[in-house]
Amino acid sequence: MTSITTLAVVGHPIGHSLSPVLHQAAYQELGLDWKYLAVDVQPGELSKFIDSTDDTLRGLSVTMPHKTAALEIADDIDLISEQTQSVNTLFFDHSSGQCTTHGFNTDVSGIVNACHDVGVVSARHVAVIGGGATASSAVVAAAELGAEHVSVIARNPQKAFHLEQVGQRAGVNVSVTPLSQIEDVSPVDLAISTLPGDIEQSLHLLSRTPHAALLDVAYSPWPSRRGTEWASSGGEVISGLRMLAHQALIQVRIFVHGNPFEKLPNEESVKRAMFESVSL
Prior knowledge:
Rossmann fold, 2 domains, six-stranded mixed β-sheet, 12 strands, 24% strand, globular
């Protein structure tokens, strides 16, 4: 019997994830009989889960709360993972006869490309709301969008000061502001909320330039309350689902080729199938 190549998204919670829909659409379009699962892995249990799998597991998409653990598990990491200190993709390479675990970060490209989709190609001042692993990707994405300054707004600033070092590695100045002082932040061109969907944090006190955009990384539920609030005042709102789809396309490249830069066969058709699968 031929073993079926398996991939999975791991996180906690994971039931809301649309990664299986996106990835299965890609592999079907590519003619690959691969299986992609959603697995609920408790905090601190990622290594144990990987140890329980066999050689049919080709790779993992990694979401909250395992991105730091994935960084520690990887035998080597790409440049973006090094800058962010966050890994959201693990590729298990058996080509040498033993398993080498490669770590990648596709969140940064997901954020940048989601912004490009709606015409946001640059932003001088960016606000990042939240202080976790996805926030570090948001800081690097802001640098790629040409930001001169990133204001990190966090409920617990002590847990967000590490993002100043992320900014140094990415070449952008970062300051950390307590959420209670959000009104003191100077007007922003782009806000990136990295808060989970079940945290309904209003951003109405955040000053913004005319037509400033909000990328809300959370996509369930959608539209989020903060997204609806932002749009009602005339701002552009970018769904986290668009970010998810863009970063998933890079993950598919990694899982197929082991290389985030090597395009897929008929990639435009694959991308179209993926985006249509989640109604984008």
